[in-house]
Amino acid sequence: MIGNHELMLVRGQHHYVEPGAWSEGTAAASDLFAASVEAAAAPGALSGILPAPTTPARARDALAHLALWSPGGPLAAELGARSLIGVAVDDTLFGHAGAIPTWLVKLGPRTLSDVNAATSAWLAGAPPPDYLSTDVLRRGAGGPGVEVALSSPYGPVWTRAFAGRPVTRGNEVGLDYVAEAECALLHATLAEATAEWARAHLANPASVPPPPARGLRRMVVGHTPQLGRATSGCEGRLIRLDTAMSAKMALPGFGSGPPTALELVWSGGVGDDDDGLRDATLIQNQVGTPQTKIEVPLEEARVVIDTRRDPSELR
Amino acid sequence: MKLKRLSLRRSVREGPAALAGDANDGPAVAASRGADGAAGSPPVASADDTFEASPPAGPPEPFNGTSSGPASSSTLPEPPPLHAPAAAATPRGGGKFGWRVVAAALLVALAALAMHRLQRNRTGEEEVSLRPPPGTPLRPGVADPTQATPFYAPSFATYASADNPPPSLAALRALAHGFGPLDPAAAAAAVPPSASAADRLTFRRSAPGARVVVVPDFHGDAAQTCRALVAARVLELEPSWTDAVDPADPCTAAASAPDPLSLAAAARWTGRDATLVHTGDFTDRGDVVVGLLALLRSLGDQAGDGRGWGRRCPRTHPVAPSDLNQRRPVYRRRKRPEAQSSL
Questions:
Q1: What residue of B is the nearest CA neighbor of A242?
Q2: Does A278 touch chain B (CB under 8 A)?
Q3: In chain B, what are the helix, strand and coil shares in percent, each to the nearest 5?
Q4: From B167, B205, B328, residue closest to A90, measured CB to CB
Q5: Of A199 and B10, which is predicted with more confidence?
Q6: Which of B149, B187, B216 sits opposite A77 (nearest CB)?
Q7: Across the interface, which of A126, A143, A266 has its CB nearest the CB of B332?
Q8: Is some CB atom of chain B closer than 8 A to the CB atom of A177?
Q9: What is the pLDDT of residues B23-49, one digit of tens each?
Q10: How many CB pairs under 8 A join A and B?
Q11: Spatial distance between the Cα atoms of A4 and A96, rounded to a whole number of angstroms
């Protein structure tokens, strides 16, 4: 997945780059480009770096980062070759912050694939593909381009709609409504992605695999750190996996989170055939303590996911 | 007005002593106003104060002693003249309580700000405001995406200032390409060539019975990333790496490795046909970013991912039953009923 911090790096926003990462990037750029970093650090060339470099060494580092991560740069191309905005594997939809149906609707039909393709082309430094079903993702062709589209605070890279407990705490009674709205948005997201998958399969059944028999029924996101351990919501259909396990993400009073992974294993459903359904098991390995596994419950979904259905019936 | 009524009750309850105590509070006020305020009577009063200070049927009460001098604390104050111009009013009541009200409001605001900061710190994620306040003038000549499409967030224009002008994307690309030759063919090969390829990239079925392993945001911490991948049984480190450090936790060496790419060189994929998904945000905040990207590339190459969209899904439905029977792993073979096993 491509997160908001990768997006910031590609866009030249170096607000969160640490000293170690500065030197690492400079070393990588020196290796890749035969020590042309110093020569290219001409005064005035860095007028647009954010935040503005303050020292010559920092200016050199910023230039190296810019060269590595700008669209068409080696690290950006590597990122675009392997990472996506949203992907569905078996019965699970993955995203950094979570796909938003309203955001996708504004971009046109069959959009998750389009967003992935446009993002890959943008990171590779290539023009947008011609087969995009919408012009919104093409810069200069009636749309702002995928770069600006992805920077939306309500898009799949930045949104906090699936963050769980709201950041700004309000009335405690209102938290139920927040959870209801989150789950309603989740069900709409899963239904939309399932329908898109089915449409893609019907359009080209030879190359695109069919969706699972019961559709997408789970979404896994990161992006918003949860305290202590990964959390789940909406009867296990939403898994928020970010536990702030980086040491630099340590919170005062909580520390950094444990190393966290999620394992999706075939649930052994009906018949001998793998029907695509997976059971989720959370793996949290705190160093010095035995590895703990926590089953993430997910009730069997017997209903056909339908956006017109009342979300309370689905839960 | 409420504070004033409280003061009234207190004066009634405690008698002239409280009034004297109140009166001692404001000699400076009385001195500053006493030039024209003869006999302790307020020189002028606003309409509100007039209404408050002279109740129609109230007891003879010098409403508070602040504005009246100490000498007149026990005498009845003159009612303010009804023809006093309201425009020349002096905030008499505010002179006693106004600063307290302002201080209380300031305290409340500070407390709210502190609570807000506390809530933000609990989440650990600094909110970056992507939206300028409405009506913010942008620099001339800068294309503001918010003007054309207000749905999207602005990019560089948000952070633009006089000493920090926004760059153009063309300038950034030119700068990046100025470092060295890029292979346009290799870069373009990563782009899905057709709509169906993009769909195949987006919608995948893993191999039957295979695991899907998801790891969350790394944020530049190589050691924690290594621990999570080892716990998920998709990564092993080379014995040379393991022998050099604590065998119980070989990933500790990743934090202090001099070469960030060495972790990728020592990584061995043990996930077999598993699918590894990371949820993004492996960059920033930490010290190892290029090393983590190299680690992900190494694992992807060993897992047979290739260049992304092409060879990820080895087999799709429908699966031939004979093929499935041959390839079924042992751990998920289900026990057959007794009647069938005896046959």
A1: B216
A2: yes
A3: 45, 5, 50
A4: B205
A5: A199
A6: B187
A7: A266
A8: no
A9: 444 444 444 444 444 444 444 444 444
A10: 416
A11: 8
Residue B87 CA, chain-centre distance (Å), reads: 48
Distance CA A299, CA A74 (A): 44
Which residue do the tokens 């069919």 mark? A210
Closest Cα partner for B276 from B267, B284, B285? Answer: B267
- Provide, for chain A, the percentages of residues in helix, strand and coil under a 3-state DSSP scheme, each rounded to the nearest 5: 35, 15, 50
In chain B, residues 172-211 whose CB comes closer than 8 Å to chain A: 172-173, 175-180, 182, 184, 186-188, 190-206, 208-211
CB hemisphere CA count around B173 (13 angstroms): 13
A137 interface with B at CB cutoff 8 Å = no
Separation of alpha carbons B236 and B230, rounded Å:
6
> Residue B301's Cα: distance from chain center in Å?
36
Instruction: Tell me whether residues A246 and B286 touch, CB distance under 8 A.
Output: yes
Q: Is B138 exposed, middle or buried (0-12, 13-18, 19+ CB in 10 A)?
A: middle
3-state secondary structure of B297: helix
Mean pLDDT of B141-156: 39
> Which of B191, B330, B335 should we substitute to test contact with A (largest number of A Cβ atoms within 10 Å)?
B191
What's the mean pLDDT in B94-105?
82
pLDDT above 70: residue A16 = yes
- Sign of the four-CA dihedral B69, B70, B71, B77: positive
The answer to whether B89 faces chain A, any CB pair under 8 Å, is no
Q: Rounded to whole angstroms, how far apart are CA atoms A173 and A164?
A: 15
For tokens 């290796």, the residue is: A31
Dihedral (CA of B269, B272, B190, A92) sign: negative
- Spatial CB neighbours of A34, under 8 Å, sequence gap ≥ 6: B180
Which chain A positions have a beta carbon within 8 Å of B123's beta carbon?
A: 163, 167, 224-225
Q: How many helices (H) and strands (E) does chain B have?
A: 17, 5
Question: HSE-up of B289 (CA within 13 Å, CB side)?
Answer: 33
Give the residue-averaged pLDDT of B173-189: 53
State whether A126 and B184 contact (CB < 8 Å): yes
Query: Within an 8 Å CB–CB cutoff, is residue A210 touching chain B?
Result: yes
Matching residue, tokens 């918010």: B146
Q: Could you give the CA distance from residue A283 to residue B302 in angstroms, rounded to a whole number?
A: 23
Please say whether the dihedral angle defined by the alpha carbons of residues B185, A126, B290 and A283, taken in this order, is positive or negative: negative
Q: Report the number of secondary-structure helices (H) and strands (E) in chain A.
A: 10, 8
Residue for token digits 């504070």? B3
Q: Is the ipTM reported for this complex over the cut 0.90?
A: no
Contact A82 B224 (CB under 8 A): no
How large is the average pLDDT for residues B186-212?
83
User: In terms of Cα–Cα distance, which of A268, A273, A87, A307 is closest to A188?
Assistant: A307
Number of other residues whose CB lies within 10 A of the CB of residue B24: 12
Element (H, E) at B200: helix B195-202
DSSP 3-state of B98: helix
Per residue in A73-96, pLDDT tens?
A: 778 888 888 888 999 998 899 999
Band (pLDDT 50/70/90 cuts) for residue B50 is very low
